[in-house]
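Researcher: Let's try something more involved. This one mixes different molecule types, so please make sure each is placed in the same coordinate frame as the others.
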Amino acid sequence: EVQLVESGGGLVQPGGSLRLSCAASGFTLSNYAINWVRQVPGKGLEWVSAISSSGAKYFADSVEGRLIISRDNFKNTVYLQMNSLRVEDTAMYYCAKDVVASGSEGFDHWGQGTLVTVSA
Amino acid sequence: DIQMTQSPSTLSASVGDRVTITCRASQSISTWLVWYQQKPGKAPKYLIHKASNLESGVPSRFSGSGSGTEFTLTISSLQPDDFATYYCQQHKSYPITFGQGTRLEIK
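Model: All components are placed in one shared frame. Result:
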């Protein structure tokens, strides 16, 4: 069974950092692109970042330069390092498995999410 | 960036109704469109890919159509489990973008 489990969320002050993790099981992580999608409670979905199976990285304009995405295929885990956090980064962060290795054909499996709260 | 616009934002309907949700792209995306269903407190669920291909296990009352810039999601006969929020998403190019969502509520 495919599973994605996020962790690492929490309360952080503006300007601070957090590292989110997405642990995968039930499939070979190295064969698929993995994405991060966030959602402010009660609002819509916003794609944040993706890393392809070959390591190509993509970011939304709103987070470009502040986030680093990486993957450890041996640990079957994808990481999202979030720096210079802003109040507007407050959201539930989901990791989501793409259907394909590179590019995207949609996200067929999602984790349960980890909540990031940026507040003084 | 490709902008995705859904309409309506909220749709009130009854069990058994046929409903249609529209999604428009700001430029042609061919059929690089996905539909998701999301229920409160849950992650989105992958429903339809490449505009019209039903994901395995999704009931046949769901269907998708369209290409280019205009797409529709139709539920032929609403069931109680279908009341949720629906999102379209383009994956023709990065950044990947979602529509703002359509909340389907019970009339």
